[in-house]
Amino acid sequence: MKKRILAKPFRTAFLALAAAVAAQIVQGDPFPEVSGVSLTQPGGAKDVIITYTLANGPAIVTIDITTNNVSIGAGHCRTLSGAVGKVVENGAHTVKWNAAADWPGNTNDQVRAVVTAWSTNCPPDYMVVNLTANKDVRWYTCEDALPGGVTNMAYRQSLLVLRKIRAAGIPWTMGTSMENGRYGEASGLTRPEVAHPVTLDHDYYMGIFEFTQGQWATLVADSRPAFFKNNNHWIRRPIENISYIHLMESRSNAANANYTYPAKSLVPAPYSYLELFRYKTGVAFMLPSEAEWEYAARAANPEGTWGDGSLIGSNNNTDGNLDNLARYARHDGKVPPDWADPTTTDAPDNGGTGYVGSYKANDWGLYDMHGNVWEMCLDWRIDDLTPNTTGDAAYVTTGTERVFRGGSWGNYARDCRASVRRSAVPSDRGWQKGFRVVVPTSLWRPNDEAYTP
What we know:
The chain has helices at residues 18-27, 99-102, 213-219, 244-248, 273-281, 290-298, 320-323; strands spanning 33-40, 47-55, 59-67, 70-71, 81-82, 87-88, 91-98, 111-119, 126-130, 137-140, 159-165, 171-174, 196-199, 204-207, 374-380, 402-405, 421-424, 433-434, 438-440. The protein is of the alpha+beta class. The protein has 2 domains: 18-121, Immunoglobulin-like; 123-453, paralog of FGE (formylglycine-generating enzyme).
């Protein structure tokens, strides 16, 4: 028996959030306005038709479906199509919702569509970039709203999901003064982890996964440098065996002094891989600064905890709480009983990198911030970070080593803590080192930015 959703027309004018309103007021722009919202289901068809009119745009439009003034949940709105989840211009617009697929077996005469217009300078929390097209970006309000869910294979190959990190003006403590496993100021193995206050001056988007081999192959068809590239597993595994120079200076791994960040340039060099990614997608991909990385990894949790708020234990080698979050040496990374390095690319079943997103996310929905692969940052290495209270990656303009964070499949629990800092010369590469990208909320790569094929 076919079920129908009967709906009363719904009229409203919504603003996104207090933050979006404040941004509009500061910049003196008119608020985006939605009017004339209606929801119908012609002839009992499976598709529900939602119409609305936008003024004072452009704006990013999202839609929630409610019944009896309660949301049915973003996971039941994944088939929305048309003028939704993207930048929309002024005028009348239409959206389709496949209610039969998203919300089967329900009949209700109190279904309504809540249409929200977000200022383009304060977009929603989740962004999905199409890696096969230029300036093809969609926005969603939460992870549950992602079409196909976060397990969708496309998010590891042709699409890239990023999460907004709200950091502007929020004081926090970078480093640690007391947690188990801490490396002190006299340590020769790693850079000191001195606790100090930092306040970033901007929000940003960060990839929810480490950049995968599948995504690399989508953008770089003729190159896949990873070690762990067994044909049955490679797409979902992080790209590794690439260097900072590959990403920021030259695809040939030859240093480019004319584009050294930040002394000579604040954007990737024209013949770098990140510039290739920016050119193909139109999106201003970048590596995170150390402070951006650690702030996101901690997810508002204090020192002495992992990214989900669970406590760091006293054993430097293994940690039951970390087992939920990470692939590391004593948890699937190395091969027992001797905890040897894997000898084959057939992993992940017998060591090495794991599929991205295999473990629990941190409290901000970011996966593999602990373990799997070390993640490269923009910064030159400096031992004493305490004067840099803004977390600016341009604080030191020259150096000899670039920083990487988070630990890897080959490290013990101690080295997967959010405060651990390691560094290497920019040309260094290896099977434990990868990256994830960030994007500014301004989003787009400048059209006049230099690119070399």
